[in-house]
Amino acid sequence: MSRLFGSVRSRATLGATLVVAVALVAAGTAVLLSLRANLTGEAGTRAERSAQAVASELAVRTPLDKLSGLNAEDAPVQIVAEDGTLVAASEDLERITGTGTAEVTPAPKGSAGGDARDDDGDDDRADDSGRSQGDSGRSDDEDDDDPLAPGEIDRGTTFVNGSATVDGDTEDYRFAAVEVETPDRGRLTVHAGAPLAAEHSAVDTALTAMLIGFPLLLGVVAAVTWLVTGRALRPVEGIRREMAAITASEDLGRRVPEPATHDEVARLARTTNATLTALEASVERQRRFVADASHELRSPIASLRTQLEVAAAHPELLDLDGAVEDTVRLQNLAADLLLLARLDAGERPAGTRVDLAALAREGAAGRAGVTVDAESVEVSGSPGQLGRVLGNLLDNAARHARARVAVTVRREGAWAVLAVADDGEGVAEADRERIFERFVRLDAARSRDDGGAGLGLAIARDVAVRHGGTLTAGAAPAGGALFELRLPLAGADGGTPRA
């Protein structure tokens, strides 16, 4: 189960189905309540009309046995006196609940609240004021609170739900109660009902339709969501399979398929391919680095071994100076490789303040033909690594200069600029970026015999980048090569300058 709902497709389908289910239940409940309220209101309106019709007949002294509302088959009617006595009721009414009284048989003639009229229709109990004695049960306060004139019908209607049994059939009804002040019988309350069978039937039908339709609709929503998410995630599965194949084969030249869309999946595929391209370039650069390093190390090691083997057999032939030179060369190469490894690993430079002017004078000391024109500017970084950059630039310039090398240090805005220029043949514009690649030597200018392994400028640029600066190659005013190291001043956030 956890594996089933562990996929995005399953979770999306479940989430969409739950949301639609909640919405359907809420909407269905609202529809049922609204339908029930409307149908109950319609039944109440019918019941009120029936009660008003009977009250109107009572208001004009219609005899009880002539009341048309008592003969309606679907509208049970009760007429109740003010003291709660049942005065009249519908024919065939066997049981009733929800009204003012549960009585279904009127009180006998002459009893309290009963029909006190004589045969000619006159009320023998009427007093001199024309009011029936049946009204004597009401207090003066009630008359003051609800004063109705004889023959007047109260405008207020009270509604209640109940049930009634008429001629053996029991149903639920909506009852309306209307009060009328009769000229001959006092205050009477007419209870008339309208059946709620239509309301129950409609609500039951709607509920049945919802119980059948909602699951079908949820099934459709789940199926559509499953298909749509599956179609949307199909490219992701293709990307996953291809990445798994690349991982298994270690072939970084392969690429994941890119959908012909402009959505997030397409952007994911493009980003993945860009990452693979960068990774392939990094691995290829690492392979070349290892191969070149092995090649560079092989030469001094082989030379040193040869000299030691010759010295072991013929001590008199030992070239001690050559052995020391090869050893120093091997030591320098190992130091360069170690520094490059640390730089590739992301080693952060120290935050020491370094005066480039003092560094330039110190680096140029003892070098023939090197002049220094420097103003005092401070940068933040590693003194050792920055000294290594200056030393590599000076070594490179010394190998190619005819007579002189000029070192300048100046301030440009938020940047410190250290420039090293020589009066040699310079660097062709097409090669000004290539010379910063590792183990790269220009055919005429760089050779192993001159002491270069092709790592000096690469190390210098990597150190500059790690210090938040740049190192570029250009043309010197004297016609030779010009290398400019730009570093942010200590405490300044100058960003990366444009080359």
Give structural notes.
The model is unreliable at 111-144, 444-449 and 494-499 (pLDDT under 50). It is rod-shaped, with a radius of gyration of 54 Å. The chain has helices at residues 8-59, 140-145, 197-249, 264-313, 320-344, 356-364, 383-400, 456-466, and strands at residues 77-81, 86-89, 93-97, 152-166, 169-182, 186-195, 352-355, 370-374, 378-381, 405-412, 415-422, 470-475, 481-488. Helix 6 (356-364) crosses helix 7 (383-400). Strand 1 (77-81) and strand 2 (86-89) form a beta hairpin. With 499 residues, it is an alpha+beta fold. The chain has a 6-stranded antiparallel sheet. A 5-stranded mixed sheet has the order 8-10-11-13-12. The protein has a two-stranded antiparallel sheet with strand order 7-9. It has 3 domains: 1-113 and 138-223, no CATH class; 264-344, Helix Hairpins (Orthogonal Bundle); 352-488, Heat Shock Protein 90 (2-Layer Sandwich), CATH 3.30.565. The longest helix is centred in the middle third of the chain and has 53 residues, at 197-249. The chain has 8 helices and 13 strands.
Keywords summarizing the entry:
499 residues; Helix Hairpins; Heat Shock Protein 90; 3 domains; six-stranded antiparallel sheet; 8 helices; 13 strands; disordered C terminus
How would you summarize what this structure contains?
The strands form three sheets. The protein has a six-stranded antiparallel beta sheet. It has 499 residues and is an alpha+beta fold. The protein contains eight helices and 13 strands.
